[in-house]
TrEMBL record:
Record key words, sorted: Amino-acid biosynthesis, Decarboxylase, Lyase, Lysine biosynthesis, Pyridoxal phosphate
Keyword Amino-acid biosynthesis: yes
GO MF annotations, alphabetized: diaminopimelate decarboxylase activity; pyridoxal phosphate binding
Function noted in UniProt: Specifically catalyzes the decarboxylation of meso-diaminopimelate (meso-DAP) to L-lysine.
Catalysed transformations (reactions): meso-2,6-diaminopimelate + H(+) = L-lysine + CO2
Active site: C373
InterPro entries: Ala_racemase/Decarboxylase_C, DAP_deCOOHase_LysA, De-COase2_N, De-COase2_pyr-phos_BS, Orn/DAP/Arg_de-COase, PLP-binding_barrel
Name of the protein this chain belongs to: Diaminopimelate decarboxylase
Modified sites of kind N6-(pyridoxal phosphate)lysine: K82
Pfam short name (any one): Orn_Arg_deC_N
Cofactor field: pyridoxal 5'-phosphate
Organism of provenance: Frankia nepalensis
Length: 446
């Protein structure tokens, strides 16, 4: 075989396919190593907007919204904006007919800027400030989910006929990371169902003339893989609806069972069985309502991550490769824990690929680290990357649409990355990169 024949055959043998189930559906990897998402080459995005950059496949997000609505007919699908909220995203949510969960005056301001329909807005938060509540009443937000006795009193004084739901702790363990396990007793959200605090809180709300209680809410946690846990929470909540009717003589018409549907970060991860969830949810609803002789309430679900995570990816440029003999090889990139704190917060794992050029060596394990001044600034430990990875290469990290842009910080005064939407072969900037001028603008210098 001549050298001319050998090189193309070597490239073919080293070409990797994209891992399944973690990249946007529209992502393709060419034989030249170029990755296209929605028809847009990622090298072009990196060249035009710089790195690191968050990329979002608009149609991927919209398709998930439609998939959810189709899988759960008659159920209100309320996108949890904390996962990723920009003005464009809020507009897409409105156009796709979903509702929107906001949890601060800031998130509400984004919704407001696109005239998001008020009756499809839900405000959350365990410690809403008076500013949050006033902003919500001013819009006015369709429903506020009340979370504490103080809030019931404070909102009662401010509101006139405000529709509210009560946040309940159903006592269901989501078997997820402790930081995002919100259905158990020992965490800060909601009123306990088991202790009777939730039923007592119903009485406190009913005593407030300014509040109109329309339903109950629970949220078992985030990155939940077992649909049976959400079914169990739903059953318990219907039991509480019956108890509220029996004790207070009111039949509540709405039940919000939260979000938390898991996504895959690695190809082998457990995903979320949406069809199974829809089936079990409707079965539980029909059975429990019949058993308690209750009219079937209007159901709401609040997925965030499941709608947007896979539509997103992050592009980084390799800054340096450091081999520590006998220890490991560190591949350091131009971002890190400021644009992705999830590995540090939750021990999150990611799928990473070298893109933008053909790979010329077999894969070997490396640790991808960030640029920040902490040894814990690790994006992905022991991941396979081609042995020829070097400074200047482009890396793509999968499944970063949810809780990346929204969780980003300016640690070490590194400006936050831009968010670039791709659709129909075109890229457009949704949020620009944060500049040194932005960072200085808030500092008075005094
Ligand atoms: C009240 C509430 N609803 C919805 C969500 C969305 O969660 P996820 O993005 O896991 O679907 C959260 C976050 O866990 C939440 O706290
Ligand atoms: N930030 C978390 C999810 C938080 C859920 C919000 N209630 C994560 O990235 O996993």
């Amino acid at each position: 075989m001549t050298l001319g024949e050998l090189i193309p055959s070597l490239r073919t043998s080293l070409r990797s396919k994209l891992a399944s189930g973690v990249w946007p559906d529209s992502a393709v990897l060419g034989t030249d190593g170029e990755m296209r998402v929605a028809g847009v080459p990622m090298t072009t995005v990196a060249a035009r907007f710089g790195t690191p950059a968050y990329v979002l496949d608009e149609e991927g997000f919209r398709r998930k919204c439609r998939e959810y609505r189709a899988a759960l007919p008659g159920v209100e699908v309320c996108y949890a904006g904390k996962a990723l909220l920009t003005r464009a995203v809020a507009a897409w949510v409105a156009q796709e007919g979903l509702s929107l969960d906001v949890c601060s005056a800031g998130e509400l301001a984004v919704a407001r800027s696109v005239d998001f329909p008020a009756d499809r807005l839900v405000l959350h938060g365990n410690a809403k400030t008076t500013e949050d509540l006033k902003a919500a009443l001013d819009y006015p937000v369709g429903r506020i989910v009340v979370d504490s006795a103080d809030e019931i009193r404070r909102l009662g004084l401010l509101a006139h006929d405000q529709r509210v739901l009560l946040r309940v702790t159903p006592g269901v363990d989501g078997h997820t990371h402790q930081a995002i396990n919100t259905g158990v007793e020992d965490q800060k959200f909601g009123f306990s169902l088991a202790s009777g605090a939730a039923a007592d809180a119903v009485g406190q709300i009913l005593a407030q003339p300014g509040l109109r209680l329309v339903g109950l809410h629970c949220h078992v946690g985030s990155q939940i893989t077992r649909v049976g846990l959400l079914e169990e929470a739903t059953r318990r909540m219907i039991g509480l609806l019956a108890a509220v009717r029996d004790r207070h003589g009111v039949t509540l018409s709405q039940l919000n069972v939260g979000g938390g549907h898991a996504v895959r970060y690695l190809p082998g991860d457990d995903g979320f069985d949406l069809a199974g969830f829809a089936h079990r949810l409707s079965g539980a609803l029909a059975y429990e309502c019949e058993r308690h002789r209750l009219p079937v309430p209007r159901l709401t679900i609040e997925p965030g991550r499941a709608l947007v995570a896979r539509a997103g990816l992050t592009l980084y440029r390799v800054v340096t490769v450091k081999h520590v003999p006998g220890v490991r090889t560190f591949v350091a990139v131009d971002g890190g824990m400021s644009d992705n704190p999830r590995p540090a917060l939750y021990g999150a794992r990611y799928t990473i690929d070298l893109i933008g050029r053909p790979r010329l060596a077999a894969a070997r394990p490396v640790t991808v680290v960030g640029r920040h001044c902490e040894a814990g600034d690790v994006l992905a430990r022991d991941v396979p990357l081609p042995g020829d990875v070097q400074a200047g290469d482009l890396l793509a990290v999968a499944c970063t649409g949810a809780y990346h842009h929204s969780l980003a910080s300016t640690y070490n005064l590194v400006g936050r990355p831009p968010l670039v939407a791709v659709a129909d072969g075109e890229a457009r900037l949704l949020v620009r990169r944060e500049t040194d001028e932005d960072l200085l603008a808030r500092d008075t210098g005094l």
